[in-house]
Amino acid sequence: MKRFFYLLAFFLLCTNVNAQSKSTIHINLSSSVLIPMEIYVGDLAELRCFLETQLLLLPEDQSNDSIQIEYDISDATDFSIVKLELSKAEGGYDLRIFFIPWKPGNLTLPDIDMKVFPSVAKIIQNSNPIILTLPSVEVASIAAKLQETSLRKPAAPLLIPGTIYVVYGIILVFIILLILLIIIWVKFRNISFFFKNIAIRLRFLKNCRKIIKRLKKLERKACSHKEFAEILSKIIKDYLFKRFGISFSSSTTTEIPVLFEEIFAGTLSNEQQDGIDKICGILHRCDYIRYAPQAKMEPEERFSIIALTKEIIFSFEKEIS
User: Fold this and answer.
1) Which residues contact 132 (CB under 8 A, 6 or more apart)?
2) How does pLDDT run across 299-320, given as a tens digit for each residue?
3) I want to staple 223 with a disulfide (CB 3.0 to 4.6 A). Which of 28, 60, 64, 227 is the partner?
């Protein structure tokens, strides 16, 4: 009978020792901070906790070192824990929990067994779980903040499917046109000068054609010697006025070379100077016919002097720009 009681007492003692070896260890949570303070559904949030405990969770030779592990709760539907970090701090440890909430409202995070960290499991090799109870957090609702009680109507697509290349093409054309406009703006002075030069040359050509027609008409006209010389002198001076922009009507024949010298400032070539001398020679001959008594101009001279005038005009259009 005594043996039975001894065996019973030994069994109870072993059961108590085994129960104590598997008892749960709870760690006190001194403080916690939610970063950011206001979180919404889908945000990556951080719960930073300070653990005040005498337990050795990290090796002594790894002061201020952190251990990072991936921690995923596949059964959770209200949130997903992305990462856990444990590091030493003065008087305890810092535990950082990174999670993503999927539902608004009060969110209760699950208790964490600190042995999920390999270093903790390596240091504390018994089978007792080391449990940390996490505080609940509040997940704000954007709909409540914006006072939206119903879903908005779906917006039209910003881009019609299949038209992306058209959009790229329009952008490319716009860029090319912009570059061309910049080039035109930079080259505007040269372009403006080019068109002005063309307009001036066309005006000179028109003037030349009119003068040639007047010379041909004078060549066929039956008139006196003085009238012929007067008309020819007027035609030459009209041409010089429209060609160089200076009126020669009130200038004497001897003043014409001086005016040309003022216009071109000694830049005339030998061919151009020769043309001016011939013009002055024709005007001198016309003045003689007009004012000298008994002066005559035979038909052959008329033809030759008109031909020489045409030649000089063509020379001016070719040589003088």
Assistant:
1) 26, 27, 29, 49, 51, 95, 111, 112, 113, 114
2) 888 889 889 988 888 887 775 5
3) 227
What is the model's pLDDT at position 151?
Answer: 67
Q: Which amino acid is at 19?
A: A
Q: What torsion do the CA atoms of 208, 210, 215, 220 make, to the nearest 10 degrees? A: 150
Spatial separation of the C-alpha atoms in residues 136 and 178, rounded to whole Å: 59
Q: Which residues contact 145 (CB under 8 A, 6 or more apart)?
A: none
Residues near 159 by Cβ (< 8 Å), separated by ≥ 6?
167
Tokens standing for 215? 């010379």
pLDDT of residue 17: 39
pLDDT < 70 stretches in the chain = 1-22, 62-76, 127, 148-152, 155-160, 162, 319-321
What pLDDT sits at residue 5? Answer: 41
